[in-house]
Specification:
Blueprint: H1 13-24, H2 29-33, E1 39-42, E2 59-71, E3 78-85, E4 88-94, H3 98-102, E5 109-114, E6 116-119, E7 122-126, E8 129-132, H4 135-139, E9 144-147, H5 152-156, H6 161-175, H7 188-194, H8 199-207, H9 212-243, H10 255-264, H11 271-285, E10 291-296, H12 302-315, E11 319-323, H13 327-340, E12 348-351, H14 357-368, E13 374-377, E14 391-397, H15 404-411, E15 420-425, H16 431-436, E16 442-446, E17 457-462, H17 466-478, E18 482-486, H18 499-514, E19 522-525, H19 531-542, E20 548-551, E21 564-569, H20 577-584, E22 595-600, H21 606-617, H22 621-632, H23 657-673, H24 683-691, H25 693-696
Parallel strand pairs: 4-7, 10-15, 10-16, 11-13, 11-14, 12-13, 14-15, 17-22, 18-20, 18-21, 19-20, 21-22
Antiparallel strand pairs: 1-9, 2-3, 2-5, 3-4, 5-8, 6-7
The structure holds adenosine-5'-diphosphate and magnesium ion (MG).
Length: 702
């Protein structure tokens, strides 16, 4: 019944049905039921007229209608009425529907609802909702009236919030006699344990709440349901990957790994790095495919961990790959991997969009023949013509740029035996997001910085304080250190639009005047340069031949120049928190004091101010990502858009973290006792998961 098409509902018909489908994606009864109110008009309490001010929010008052007057003529004609309760009186005002107003009964008791405003220096309510207080109305309990999202097009078809209320009511009238057939999807024992209402009761409770308490518990049930089934899906998917998909067994820790550890490693690994490598080793030896997310703040030393994992794969006779989000970062990885691999006798290849022609052809042949041990590249590496002889492990340096989709594609490279996957992210993911968008992965965290790191001193300065900034730059450069200056990208794509380069170029002119040659040398890097030029400028900076590197966000990810001690971010208000944090992480790798200066204009939105303040106050990546999530909501956090798992109707991973945690724990508990949901009491869940498999992905339930 709930899957019945919406046009069969009383009061809908084809034209309205079409509009509902197009505008709100509502095709079925169930989808209409899930069009939950986004707020409620509180009609459970009455205001006193003496308390009403012209800037009050919506008010509801009960009283007697007094005089009705008609004022003015023609187009200026309007009607007023005096409405009085025991505390005072207020004016009601109409410009339209005047004939109808004349039918109101002077002296009768009414309920008036509306938003107060000022007209002719008097507080009044324009076009109020006004209903006669009949004997029957007096008996009815007051309510929280639902307000529904709608669109201009729907309003044109009489589907404003009132219109939607009407068809919603029709729907409930239709399904109410059949309510016992509406399947409960959470088993009874769970509802009892959690003291949550049944499914139908909650639907009623959310569209027609008796009171605040009834509304809250109904919402809680629906939110729990949304989180709970997502958790079941991701946990089942993870369980299936673990047990269902066989993984290569990397049995040994071999020569290359030991050689590197004993001869090439220049420092002691942090305890966190050691712990994470152990977690990875256990995964790789388990016989199941590894799907692990490695979180670690910028500069926490993920690269070494990735490299040592690759060595385990190579020691066991497999090829490995390291995937980076940008060309520059791939280059950077290539040079640091080459350095780390010195003397280990490894063949390392680079595959990016700019490797073309003969070179590319030869590389692909080598790869297919199994002659390449480590292939480093951008996502060119997962395009179809790329064939490995025996790919055993892929490390994806995600930095929040690759989506879940790319990750999934990687597995298909070897159809029979998918490679192990290690995804690394530099911006810590808030716990709630890790549990949802990344919930199908195992998570390792490097929560410790290499010794000697000092927090980067961060300042927020306005354009008018630029001289101070120049002074700071000169001081750092005099100490033999280097400085980054980063400009925001205006255009979405690095290769379109001139404006990004314009800002940078104007800045460059200014810098040339302030930091003249030959005393100072400046590198400049942007998206419209040829890759070779870009590389040359970057290299000059990396070698210390230039003291200042000016760039658009191309250097956002992964660049590693330990001698750089100052990061200046221009128009910092245009960057999101995650990006700012990433950029700041480019400095302070040399062990000494490091600085970040955020330059903004005077005019800052509340949002912008909050971002600057957060950056100045903390260098803790987790705190910053929590703030970011609060500010932008989960849908806008990079890397989550494509995942499609965050499309909750009601639940909100920022507000409802508590419910999410409980849903996850209970889902875990149930699956540990009944991994395939085969116990009779769990049948409702299995049935629902299977029924929604097509629309909700993930759940590959056998
Ligand atoms: P990220 O996690 O941002 O990728 P990197 O792997 O680039 O960080 O490491 C940042 C810097 O810290 C590198 O120069 C690296 O050599 C150094 N490093 C990593 N681990 C340690 C350690 N245990 N002790 C000292 N320095 C380390
Ligand atoms: Mg890195």
């Amino acid at each position: 019944m709930l899957n019945t098409s919406i046009e069969y509902l009383k009061g809908v018909g084809t034209s309205k049905a079409d509009a509902l489908k197009r505008e709100l994606g509502i095709f079925t009864y169930l989808q209409l039921l899930q069009h939950y109110p986004f707020r409620y008009v509180d009609k459970t309490r009455f205001h006193k007229i003496k308390d009403i001010k012209d800037d009050s929010e919506y008010v509801q008052i009960k009283g007697i209608l007094r005089r009705i007057n008609s004022i003015g003529d023609g187009r200026k004609k309007r009607m007023t009425a005096v409405f009085r309760d025991e505390t005072g009186s207020i004016e009601l005002l109409w410009f339209k529907g005047l004939r109808w107003v004349q039918n109101l009964q002077v002296g009768a008791e009414y309920i008036v609802y509306g938003k107060p405003s000022t007209f002719n220096n008097r507080t009044n309510i324009v076009h109020p909702d006004i209903t006669l207080l009949t004997e029957e109305k007096k008996k009815n309990a007051p309510t929280l009236d639902p307000v529904y999202h709608t669109t201009e097009k729907l309003k044109g078809k009489w589907l404003d919030t009132k219109g939607i209320s009407t068809i919603m009511k029709n729907l409930f009238i239709k399904i109410h006699p059949h309510r016992h057939q509406i399947p409960e999807i959470i088993p009874a024992y769970l509802l009892e344990r959690l003291r949550l209402p049944g499914r139908y009761t909650s639907l009623i409770g959310i569209h027609y709440p008796r009171d605040k308490a009834a509304l809250d518990i109904s919402k809680k049930r629906i939110k729990f349901e949304e989180f709970f089934f997502l958790q079941l899906r991701v946990l089942l998917s993870r369980q299936q990957k673990k047990t269902g998909i066989r993984g290569f067994v990397f049995k040994i820790i071999g020569d290359k790994f030991n050689d590197f550890y004993n001869n090439n490693l220049e420092f002691e690994l942090t305890n966190a790095q050691k712990r994470v490598i152990k977690e990875i080793r256990i995964d790789l030896g388990s016989g199941h495919q590894m799907n692990r997310l490695l979180q670690g703040d910028v500069g926490s030393g993920k690269t070494i961990v990735a490299f040592m994992s690759l060595l385990i794969g190579i020691d066991n006779g497999f090829q490995t790959a390291l995937m980076a989000p940008t060309e520059i970062l791939a280059q950077q990885h290539l040079s640091s991997v080459k350095e780390m691999a010195e003397g280990l006798d490894l063949t390392i290849g680079l595959l990016t969009g700019t490797v073309k022609g003969k070179k590319r052809k030869y590389l692909l042949e080598q790869l297919e023949a199994g002659e390449i041990d480590i292939l480093i590249g951008t996502h060119a590496l997962i395009e179809d013509p790329v064939i490995f002889k025996n790919l055993g492990l892929v490390v994806v340096d995600e930095q929040h740029r690759f989506g879940v989709v790319q990750r999934a594609r990687m597995w298909r490279k070897n159809v029979v035996n998918p490679p192990h996957i290690l995804v690394m992210t530099a911006t810590p993911i808030p716990r709630t997001l890790a549990m949802t968008a990344y919930g199908d992965l195992d998570v390792s965290v490097i929560d410790e910085m290499p010794p000697g790191r000092k927090p980067i001193k961060t300042f927020h300065k306005f354009e008018s304080q630029r001289l101070w900034t120049f002074g700071q730059m000169k001081r750092e450069i005099a100490k033999g250190h280097q400085v980054y200056i980063v400009y925001p990208l205006i255009e979405e794509s690095e290769y379109e639009g001139l404006s990004e380069v314009k800002d940078l170029m104007v800045g460059y002119e200014v810098m040339l005047r302030e930091f003249p040659r030959p005393e100072y040398q400046i590198s400049i890097v942007h998206g419209r340069q040829k890759p070779a030029d870009k590389k040359m400028e970057m290299d000059r900076f990396a070698r210390g031949e230039t003291q200042i590197l000016m760039a658009t966000t191309v250097i956002e990810v992964g660049v590693n120049v330990p001698n750089a001690s100052m990061m200046i971010i221009e128009n910092a208000e245009r960057f999101g928190l995650a990006q700012l944090h990433q950029l700041r992480g480019r400095v302070g790798r040399g062990g000494g004091d490091a600085y970040c200066i955020l330059m903004t204009g005077f005019k800052l939105s509340a949002d912008g101010r909050f971002r600057m303040q957060t950056m100045v106050e903390t260098t803790d990546g987790f705190k910053i990502s929590e703030a970011d999530l609060k500010l932008r909501g989960p849908g806008n956090i990079e890397g989550t858009q494509q995942s499609g798992v965050l499309n909750f109707k009601l639940a909100d991973i920022v507000q409802d973290g508590e419910i999410l945690r409980s849903a996850r724990n209970i889902a875990k508990e149930i699956l540990s006792e009944d991994p395939k949901l085969q116990k009779p009491e769990n049948a409702p869940m299995l049935k629902y998961l299977n029924a929604t498999r097509k629309t909700h992905g993930f759940g590959l339930i056998s």
